[in-house]
Amino acid sequence: MSTPAPDPDTRFWSPALRGLSAYTPGEQPQGTGWIKLNTNECPYPPSPLALRRMAEAVDERLRLYPDPSALALRQTIAAQHGLRVEQVFVGNGSDEVLAHAFMGLLRHGRPVLVPDVSYSFYPVYCALYGVACQPVPLDADFRVRVADYLQPNGGIVLPNPNAPTGIALPLDEIRWLLQHNPDSVLVVDEAYVDFGAQSAVSLIDEFPQLLVVQTLSKSRALAGLRVGFALGHADLIRALSTVKDSFNSYPLDRVALAGAQAALEDQAHFASLTRRIVDSREWLARELQALGFHCLPSSANFLLARHPRHGAARLQQDLRERRILVRHFSQPRIAEHLRITIGSPAECEALVAALRELIDPVRHRDSKVTPA
């Protein structure tokens, strides 16, 4: 039995830090033999072109600082999205990009509106930067109602698709919200957009208050590289750059810049990877439903599912004992749900087999009996 960690000595901590409840990332187990379906990582390797470019970048040039403007990478992103390079910002993962937006673009005199069931880092950013956070309830089907965001605010942050629900907003609803919320920034967090949602990038030139944030962690299989980017009006991008250069002028190293650019160039690998994940998502949803689970409609690389007769916390623990990791949140509205990352076909099949044994052990046992 493990010994609880002692209470920290906080005498030298700032008052703001003492009252902060930090974000808790998903478990990263030590050792091998685990099936990791808990952190929305990609089950497939990155682009071979990206791996080759990163290997080529590991040479004597590492003694030099990288380009602080990441110009070549930003040019590639701008070209792919039909934007100007001044409309692109890059950072050390989309989490850093979002943090800069919370600091530099959200008004601290009014509350920031976020969905009540959403990415749990948003309220942490608010607490860190002294921004009031106001959760806006999803409806009974866990959907965002954009009309609920028409209230005084210092900014709105909407993940699309939402996490951990996986439900996406249609583009026309984002447009409607922008039309009716002209005086504060709308941040659309598109970490999972490549798995079936409509991107808001096409609205950037029409709405100067729109900032779209994406990442290479999910659909480009580069979670370990830490590269994210933002797209928006040049004035919004200048604000993010000002925050960056007041914090860390070199957030992306030479290896990350090379790998990210190559991954974006390798469109064939990207298309194959996302197609395989979507196919596995649809297969897994059918299999879970056959086991009695209710799955929310997902446009992401995960499913949020609950079983009417089996508690989510217990299922998570039972799966963990079988070396399968899924994510459970204790937040009241989703406390009986599991968030399940879409793994490889073999990983999804192993998950289904384990759940079948846990949910209906008698039938599972009988199905193994060989007739005489």
From TrEMBL:
InterPro entries found in the cross-reference section: Aminotrans_II_pyridoxalP_BS, Aminotransferase_I/II_large, HisP_aminotrans, HistidinolP_aminotransfase, PyrdxlP-dep_Trfase, PyrdxlP-dep_Trfase_major, PyrdxlP-dep_Trfase_small
Matches recorded under HAMAP family: HisC_aminotrans_2
Enzyme Commission number: 2.6.1.9
Superkingdom of source: Bacteria
A GO molecular-function descriptor: pyridoxal phosphate binding
Domain Aminotransferase class I/classII large: 33-355
Pathway terms, separated by semicolons: Amino-acid biosynthesis; L-histidine biosynthesis; L-histidine from 5-phospho-alpha-D-ribose 1-diphosphate: step 7/9
Catalytic activity: L-histidinol phosphate + 2-oxoglutarate = 3-(imidazol-4-yl)-2-oxopropyl phosphate + L-glutamate
Pfam families with a match to the protein in the record: Aminotran_1_2 (PF00155)
One GO BP: L-histidine biosynthetic process
Subunit-structure text: Homodimer.
Modified residue annotations for N6-(pyridoxal phosphate)lysine: 218
Keyword GTP-binding belongs to the record: no
Full protein name: Histidinol-phosphate aminotransferase
Amino-acid biosynthesis keyword on record: yes
The family this protein is said to belong to: Belongs to the class-II pyridoxal-phosphate-dependent aminotransferase family. Histidinol-phosphate aminotransferase subfamily.
Protein species of origin: Hydrogenophaga borbori
Names of required cofactors: pyridoxal 5'-phosphate
